[in-house]
Write a structure and sequence with these properties.
Distance between the termini: 42 Å
Order of helices and strands: HHHHHHEHEEEH
Strand order of the largest sheet: 2-1-3-4
Radius of gyration: 20 Å
Structural class: alpha+beta
Shape: globular
Number of helices: 8
Largest sheet: 4 strands, mixed
């Protein structure tokens, strides 16, 4: 059995739901509201362990999952298309793909706006000025507006790892130390 198969199935499911939600929102001219909803949903998912458990639990019956996700959507004031999509996902036992759905919707919205997302990992949190400067530098390189998705990994010691599409730039001290270590092994 190919271990990547479940991941690709999850990815395909998320892509199908995301495409449907995106297309309907685009037709309704409500992409800006959808973008805001997706950000709010991502924040809620990150901040609430109960929410994360709800979408991942195979024990919670479909009807309860749908009722809970509908109540969450109502409380958050989500767009009807997103609310209905989440309800359908609950009915079909597909709520576990919600994190991938959020990623896919963000990608589609950014592409529609002519933007790309750069995943930036740094040893410590970037300041607003550093993020803006990095976005400007990447825009000059890529030719599109760049949204920075920043994460912190203290094991980098210093420097950055930047991923834009299929390109990756690793200027971290950890990477340089590993390269130096490998070079030393070859000599000795």
């Amino acid at each position: 059995m190919d271990v990547s198969e479940p991941a690709s199935i999850t990815s395909r499911n998320a892509a199908r739901y995301a495409t449907a939600i995106f297309e309907i929102s685009k037709d309704d001219k409500s992409l800006a509201k959808l973008e805001s909803n997706v950000t709010d949903l991502a924040t809620a998912l990150d901040d609430s362990d109960e929410f994360a458990e709800l979408i991942a639990s195979p024990v919670v019956p479909r009807s309860e999952q749908k009722a809970a996700i509908t109540a969450i959507a109502d409380k958050m004031g989500l767009e009807p298309v997103l609310k209905n999509g989440l309800g359908l996902m609950a009915e079909k036992r597909r709520l576990f793909v919600l994190p991938q759905l959020i990623v896919k919707l963000r990608e589609m919205i950014a592409e529609d706006k002519g933007e790309v997302t750069a995943d930036v990992t740094s040893a410590k949190a970037l300041t607003k000025t550093q993020s803006e400067k990095l976005a400007k530098t990447l825009k000059a390189s890529v030719g599109k507006d760049v949204n920075i998705n920043a994460t912190v990994d203290e094991s980098l010691i210093g420097g950055l790892i930047v991923k834009v599409g299929s390109k990756m730039i690793d200027t971290s001290i950890r990477s340089r130390l590993n390269s130096l270590q490998n070079a030393m092994k070859e000599v000795g």
